[in-house]
Amino acid sequence: MGAPRISAAIIKEAVAQVEETGVTVKIETKRTVVTISPPETLKPVNPADLIDP
User: Fold this and answer.
1) What pLDDT digit, counting tens, does each position of 11-50 carry?
2) Quick one: which of 10, 19, 26, 51 has the fewest CB in 10 Å?
3) What are phi and psi of 16, to 5 degrees?
């Protein structure tokens, strides 16, 4: 069984979706590498802030 293929339509849809949310996507071909990063405006969350006292 060969490696799965990512069609241009799937890549186009993925990029459109992440651009709407401000997320950065980088797609490299030839043994595909997809990197998805949160927007720079997103602040890191302190796990302690998520716990109710």
Assistant:
1) 777 777 766 666 766 777 677 677 767 666 666 667 676 6
2) 51
3) -60, -40
Contact (CB, 8 A) for 37 and 19: no
Write out the H or E segment, with its range, that includes residue 16: helix 8-21
pTM over 0.90: no
Q: How far apart are CA 32 and CA 2, in angstroms?
A: 13
Residue 3 is encoded by which pair of tokens? 């490696």
* Assigned token pair, 9: 């339509």
29 CB-near residues (< 8 Å, 6+ apart): none
